[in-house]
Amino acid sequence: MIRRSVLALALALGAAPLAAAPADIAEAVIDRHVLPGFARFEAAAADLQAAAEADCDPGSDPLRAAWGAAFDAWLGVSHLRLGPTETDNRAFALAFWPDPRGMTPKALAGLIAEADPVVESQAGFATVSVAARGFYALEYLLYDPQFTPPTPYGCALIRAETRDIHALAAAILADWQDGYADLMRQPGPEAPYKDEREVLKALFTALHEGLQVDVDLRLGRPLGTFERPRPTRAESWRSGRSLHNVTVTLTALRDLAMLMAAEDPASAAALSADFDRADRLAADLDDPVFAGVATPQGRLRVEILQQAIHEIAEETRASLGPALGVAAGFNSRDGD
Amino acid sequence: MTDRRSFLAGALAASLSPRIGWADAGSPAFLSAAQEKNGNQMLVGLDAQGAERFRLPLPQRGHAAAAHPIRPEATAFARRPGTFALVIDCREGRVTAVLDAPEGRHFYGHGAYSADGRYMYTPENDYDAARGVIGVWDTEAGYLRVGEFDSHGIGPHDIKLMPDGKSFVIANGGIETHPDSGRAKLNIPFMEPNLAYLGAEGTLLETVAPPAEWHMNSIRHLALGPGGTVAFAMQWEGPEAEAPPLLGLHRRGAAPVWLDAPGAEHAAMQGYAGSVAISQDGAEAAISSPRGGRVHVFDIAGARFAGAIEARDVCGLAPAAGGGFVATTGTGDVLGLQGLRPVWTARHGRAFDNHLVTVGAA
């Protein structure tokens, strides 16, 4: 029993603000989460481009599979909204969602109606509205009956989309490898990150906001209100990926959370249990596109998953943030 | 029926009631929403030196308040996406009316009274249509909703009455949100903020927008200077490294002026200005950044940066009597700022929320 209480004491002490070097945590996140994640994304995007070159038929299984794999790889890094993803609106060009005004199908229909030659060059396509680019635009082209009948222009458009996605993925990876990772590793008074706390804060914000995207958008949008559920607002319902996307992002966010909690066993244990619970709820949900939100029972199950992810977000804010020394102030936390 | 006593009572009421003013509520100079240590939400009245004059409970976290120009009456707005606002008699400490946002709407946390105090104007989100609306409420009919007009933009956040007493200036932040998605921003790549001037009936008089490359600079908060100078504070939604100026100055019919501090000092604001104020003499404008923990002061006539004052989690800002500014922080400080430094501090055991509202100003 004495051993156990010593252990408990050690755990309790572990919950106090850590003395361990924040640089080690940042280093681990960059080397084991950020850089490998963007490298995987670049590779998957290259495969997608190759698949479209080989077969641009919207019904092509290899093409659809490559799109799904590249989308998964993007979701694995989509929470890392800093630096290279923000340059030139790259993250929006890869993933313009939600689309409350239905701009994506309108923009695609516009390109098709005019047979816009902008698809002929990569530089040209990079000037197209972000609403007509990226994974969600490609989902329309591969899965929506309005766009799936094969046409020569549709083929050129799909190839332009995949080439564009790969170019964006390559540019983001290059920027991380050739500069941004070092900026985060070497904070300084004249640098964008003044000290290690600012680096940790940026990574912590990415974790917290990533969780919030699942809560507010991936689950919040289809849930709507009890009186007015909105199943067709679910993300990627055309390809049947709505729940899958939540699962993929949870895996990536857990990876980041565990690296950030490496020096804080109490937070790590609590977060691990929270992620386990959310994963289990997602696995048991059996509602791939959240169609169940339209029924009281189905809705409740989606709400329970949403609440479970909300609890992870709260746990990060209440324990991990303070332990890392990046707890935000009353006004700076979520200003208005 | 009219005996002497009731006649007298009536005469007294008639002669006295118009004189009931802010002096009867302890003559606060400022109002602020605040969170007490125990988590309770309050509307707090502060004197010119930051001491508490009154505190009144709020049912949930507040954002900003509007002070009636004559009566000791304040409307306290819940934080976005709140759907109600409370009208509080600050003398008696009771709620005298509740403003409920119409179905399908929420408030943004700000509102303004007309010059004579007859009407209250509230920026609102018509969220299914993603349309900004200004609601009109008659304060003399128990804050009955009597009309509304288009804000001419998405996300109308702040509103001020112009010195002519007939027109308004509105900060249309440009960001689409929907309560189903919490506070998530839904249209960042396509946002188009503007400053809109409207006539009393909602006629559009003039709009001012940031240049195209700054379309992600959300115009959020407003301050009015003597002579009709409008200062507007912005929040940058684009890449942090590219953060453009966070303060704009405008006069009707003229081109806007964009102001920022040099280099690293500007970067320290982290692309975020939370509040804005113009000094009483109209010489200086200030913006606060709780994220950067600093206030930036600018010389209006010279259109240049004057200096920075560091203060942790600072957000609320208002002009101080006789020059300079008063600032509030989430750590409970009320700071008197003069000559680019804090000259006095009043410490409270509470977290002051985003905005410090001047009593007796539009």
From TrEMBL, chain A:
Signal sequence coordinates: 1-20
A family per Pfam: Peptidase_M75
Predominant location category: other
Keywords for the protein's UniProt record, in alphabetical order: Signal
Domain of life: Bacteria
Annotated localization: Cell envelope
Species name: Rhodovulum visakhapatnamense
One of the record's GO cellular component terms: cell envelope
Name of the protein in its database record: Imelysin-like domain-containing protein
Domain Imelysin-like as annotated: residue spans: 35-313
InterPro entries with a match to the protein in the record: Imelysin-like, Imelysin-like_IPPA, Imelysin_sf
TrEMBL record, chain B:
Parts forming coiled coils: none
InterPro entries associated with the record: Quino_amine_DH_bsu, TAT_signal, UCP028101, WD40/YVTN_repeat-like_dom_sf
Superkingdom assignment: Bacteria
Protein name: DUF1513 domain-containing protein
Provenance organism: Rhodovulum visakhapatnamense
